[in-house]
From TrEMBL:
This protein's UniProt keywords: Membrane, Transmembrane, Transmembrane helix
Keyword set includes Transferase: no
Domain (RCK N-terminal): residue spans on this chain: 144-264
Keyword Nucleus tagged: no
InterPro entries the record matches: K_chnl_dom, NAD(P)-bd_dom_sf, RCK_N, Trk_Ktr_HKT_K-transport
Organism ancestry: Bacteria, Bacillati, Actinomycetota, Actinomycetes, Mycobacteriales
Full protein name: NAD-binding protein
Organism whose genome encodes this protein: Corynebacterium stercoris
Family matches, as Pfam families: Ion_trans_2, TrkA_N
Amino acid sequence: MPFTIPFSSRFRNEEVFDVPVHTLTEVITIPSAEHITPWALIARRFGYAALLVLLVAIVVFVDREAYSEPLTFVDALYYSAVSLSTTGYGDITPVTQGARLVNIFIITPARVAFLMLLVGTTLSVLTEDSRKTLQIQQWRQTVRNHTIVIGYGTKGRSAIDALLAGGAAPSSIVVVDADPAVLSHAENRGLVTVQGNGTKSDVLRIAGVNRARAVVVAPSSDDTAVLVTLSVRELAPGAMIVASVRESENQHLLMQSGADSVVVSAETTGRLLGLATVTPPVVEMMEDLLSPDEGFAVSERPIADDEVGANPRHLADIVLGVVRSGELYRIDEPEAETVEPGDRLLYVRMTAPSDAPDAAKQTE
């Protein structure tokens, strides 16, 4: 589960990768591949303790003649249980030098381990913190070219759905939000989460914004989107920033703040609502194109060698545009009359629920 961030002023003056790892255990949540219930953990510990009792009983039984009386295996098991639990009735005792050495170097450490297993509540917390620290340390050292999604509301979740459907690994997506409840949902999907305000530079640094490939800005308000975009562009000049605003009149503010692409959500929704009242099949087809899991989808691919010099309208795929040097030319523009080396095509492809895109990059 995500935790509340106890931010201190030192994060504002230090590079986050210089901050001690243990101070971030309540900031970053890295999903574990294994989710175990408390009852399962108790059962596992009890199993380890029982196995330890059995192993010590075997050791004692092998040297059964070295005790105050010849031991049966039940006697050895009994001696193991009362010794490891520190009960120590004293009715069975080692009498030879070898048996006493076994007690010193095997049974005594086993007794300590046994107590740690059974009385390990505090130890469990410490172990969990250590595991988190190691996970965060490894993540900080290896995180590169990831995608940060700021805001895990409807827009943020939909953006992540498209990323995952386009082949992105859950571990390559970092979600930033201030609500621990929504971060818990994100963690259950296998996403890395950072709890905090996306307008804060220290939060963005913790999310590794300076090493991110792209940042999706999807807060609930337009003014927050502008502040987030300004902060991200300042910290990550080379990252691609895709932002969402509700009103078209704020689109230019996002572009001036450093966004590479801006999606106007309210206006787009309004257009679809208007189309739905006149031509419902058009809206159905648009929904199909925007759903990457089934039906049709708009995708991007590199051109093949035998397509160089051809008119994209005459290719086998339904081509919508040509991307050249990062610039999009629609199919009806003069620049898209012929395909040049290095171009990429935006086209309509048929998908299936089990499809896993290879070279195609999903677009929204």
